[in-house]
Amino acid sequence: MFASVQIRDMFDQVAPRYDRANQVLSMGVHHRWRKRLVQEAGAKPGMRVLDCATGTGDLAFEFKRTVGENGSVRGLDFSSRMIELAKTKLDTSRYPVDFMVGDVLSLPFADNSFDIASIAFGIRNVDDPVAGLKEMARVVRPGGRIAVLEFGQPDGALFSRLYRWYSNRAIPTIGGWITGTPKSYGYLTESSASFPAGDRFVDLMKVTGSFTSIEVTPLTFKIAYIYIGTVR
C-alpha cells in the first residue's frame, strides 16, 4: 500500500502528461462521467462548489460552466504540480476557478462554506476515506451535497474478464508509455480493484453519520460509480 506522500509524489511526476493519458486510457469517456457528476450533484447557477483532488481542474471547470459567473468554484489538490497545470488552463478558459494546494483531510474552510463538495477518482487515495468524507461534509451546508466519482468493478463474466485484462495489462503499459511511469499506472489498477465500490462504498459513507440520504448511479457497466450524499 502506498503512503500518501508517495501518492502525492507520483501525481507530481505524471502531471505533465496526465490529461493525455486519461484521454487515451478512457477513450474520452471520463469527460462524460464528469458531466454526469455535475448533473447528479444538482449544481445550479449561483452555487458555491469545492472540488477536492481536482488534478488539472477538468471537473472544477465543468462545475464552473454550470454555476456561472454568480457562482464560485474552488479546486484543491495535494499535488502542487497538478495545481500548477490547472492554473495554466485559466489562460484559455472563460470560466475562472480558484485553485489551491490542500489536503481533503484538513480543508482550510469554515463550516457550511459550500453548496457542493466533489471528488473524482481521488477518495481512494486518501489515507482515511471516512475522515475525508466527514471533512468534506463539514464544509458543506446542511441539505447540500457531497458528490463522489470513483472506479468500480464491472460484473458480467465476459465483460469482467475483458476489463480485468485491460486494467492489468493495457493500462500499466499504455499509461507507462505515455507518462514514462508504468509503476504509477500499476498503482491505479491495484487501488481501483481493491477499493470498495457500490454498496460497500455506501457503507463507508454511512459510517460518517454525515448524510440523510445516499444515491448511487453506476456508469458504463459499473466501471465507475457516482455517489451523492445529502449532508445532514
Architecture overview:
The longest helix has 23 residues, at 157-179. With 232 residues, the protein is α/β, with parallel strands linked by helices. The chain has helices at 4-14, 18-26, 29-40, 58-67, 80-88, 129-138, 157-179, 182-194, 199-207, and strands spanning 48-52, 72-77, 98-101, 114-120, 140-151, 211-219, 224-231. It has one domain (4-154, 196-231): Vaccinia Virus protein VP39 (Rossmann fold), CATH 3.40.50.150. It is built from nine helices and seven strands; from the N terminus they run H-H-H-E-H-E-H-E-E-H-E-H-H-H-E-E. The chain is 46% helix and 22% strand.
Which short descriptors sum up this protein?
single chain, 232 residues, alpha/beta, Rossmann fold, seven-stranded mixed beta sheet, 22% strand
Give the gist of this structure.
The protein has 232 residues and is α/β, with parallel strands linked by helices. It contains 9 helices and 7 strands, in the order αααβαβαββαβαααββ.
